[in-house]
Amino acid sequence: MRGLAEYAMSGRMQAAVMAILFGLIPGFFLGLSVVSGAVVALVTLRRGWQDGLPMLLWALLPAGLQWKLGDPSQAFVLVGVVIAALSLRRWQSWQVVILLMLAVGIGLQWSLPWQTSYLAKVKEAVEQLQRNGVQVQVLDNGKVVNATPEQVIEALLRYYGASQMLMMFGCMVLSRYWQALLYNPGGFRQEFHQLRLDWRLMVLMAALIAAGIYGISPLADWVFMLFMVPVVQGMAVVHYVVAHRNMGKAWLVLAYLLLLIAAPAFALLGLIDALANIRKRLDVTKENLKD
């Protein structure tokens, strides 16, 4: 990872080459083309919009190709990443960045009815899978039945904004990690361990999530995006506890595996930390034990 960061920052042409090559990987396959967005964000974080915007234009070349093929997601993510990087550079606040990414995710979710080529591509992919014998099962009146293509498409599209928000967050985390690795060793680790959002914002998120779960429109379509806000803080708490208790990286791997099946638990942890400041209490307890 350090080698990639050093190469990207060794010159504008090198960064452009990385942004283009990794951007050619379609649909953020296996997350590899997150590197393209991370390069753009790293240049923006370090050198500002003067270098960041030209790098965005280079990265948009392969993204434009993906758009022509029916998937505009990569271009949207890149633009969102530049906005987030400029904001983090200006205000040094992850809360601002997370709210910006949430706004972009909601905007993209709203834009789906106008993304006719993308909708057609999703429909074609789902129908092809079902023609190949792949079936998705759902509960209908207490019975397990095969989902229709329309049901599968509707379920997938509900994750659209959240998936773009997740990719933006991945780009920003990787770029900030690279920046710290090159110019401020250990800085990102400390920054993420101390990530804590305003408790009033977290209470608002909890209320909106509850309203969405109960089916209040349009919040019902935003639940997955809203969940990501407290989840980020919950994961910051987990990283902090694992590091300060010297528990080993295996616990972090376990935490991320659990995140895939128990995201609400991490969201609840984030909300509790916003209200009770778990990390501060752990520090106080540790100091008292020393005394």
Structural overview:
With 291 residues, the chain is mainly α. It has a domain at 194-291. It is 77% helix and 3% strand. The chain has 15 helices and two strands. The chain has a two-stranded antiparallel ribbon. Helix 3 (34-47) packs antiparallel against helix 4 (49-68). The protein is globular and about 55 Å long. The protein starts with a helix and ends with a helix.
User: What structural category characterises the helix and strand content?
Assistant: mainly alpha
Mean pLDDT: 89
Proportion in β-strands: under 5%
Order of helices and strands: HHHHHHHEEHHHHHHHH
State the helical fraction.
over 70%
Sum up the overall morphology in one term: globular
- What strand order characterises the main sheet? 1-2
Number of strands: 2
Let me know the largest β-sheet: 2 strands, antiparallel
Question: Rounded to an integer, what's the Rg over CA atoms?
Answer: 20 Å
Helix count, DSSP H or I runs of 4 or more residues: 15
End-to-end distance:
41 Å
What ranges have pLDDT less than 50 throughout 5 or more consecutive residues? none
